[in-house]
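Entry for the shared binder. Reason: the reviewer on the internal report wants the predicted structure included alongside the sequence.
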Amino acid sequence: MKMIRSVLMLIALISVAWFGCKKIPVGFIGESMYYKDSPFKIEQGNIKQVTSSLNLDGSTLPVNVKLLEVRVKGTNQRADDFYKEHEVYVYKQPIDPAVDTTIAMVNAKREKKMLPPFEFLPSGQFLFNAGTIFLPARAQYEFDIEVSNESGSRVYKNIGEIQLQDAELFRPYAIANSWFSDQTGLSGTVNSTPEMIITKVSNQGTNAIVKIVDKNGVPFNPKKGEIIKRGDRPTFESYAKFNPVVIGDESMTCNYEITPFPMKRISGYGDFLMYYRIPSTYATLDNFPAGQAPGSTFSINPRFGFQIKQEGTYLITIKLNGVTHK
């Protein structure tokens, strides 16, 4: 019996000694980390886009994620364009056009910096800025990261992909056109559908140019009063918060400064609607409205709405089919 007890004690002592010498692992770093939303679809030129965070596969927190390299997809070529710096606006606080009504107030909330088109966060997220507009169109990339915590570090090759996409430059909303009798005050829909044609004419500047033309493309002259406001309804000027609208012989131009433009809707007036009137002195209807007295004259009432999504200079042409300039 003594012998058995001695043997058991010896085994116990050996076990204690063995476990005492064995190194107990500290923390855990997973092998199967991944990005749920990869490939990341990034619209080029947008001011701010943030990717999803890294799934850490149960790794011990805190972790630090380091970007090792971004490559052109399917090659061993480092994506040098991805690291080039460009001058972009960085917004320190959100802009509210109802509060920030001057350029000075807007500039107090933003600053220009020379930056690459992205910032890589310790969480493993990409924060993209407007500098993505300078990258090759529809380019595709892959990237490697290193993740570290108290247990050590691990490299993950080709863990995610980035796909650049064409951004939505602008969005046309409603457009309509009606006639208004100068004699009776009655109104009705012009029986030819108007058109809104939006063209990005330059990547430079932040200008919106509104031009209203007849069916033949002849412009109405806002400077001469051929285009006027309709009472207290919103116009182009109603959405131009930071710079005045410049009235020309053929168009109205606004330096909108920041996108999207317009930024906020006006309550009760749908999607950025703008209302104008062309007096009967300057326009005639191709088809005389049914039921109206012979010799009646009619003003033209176009209304339209749009939103510019990305910086640049845009021409917004409102073509009034069924209407001829006098």
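Summary line for the report: The longest strand covers residues 152-165.
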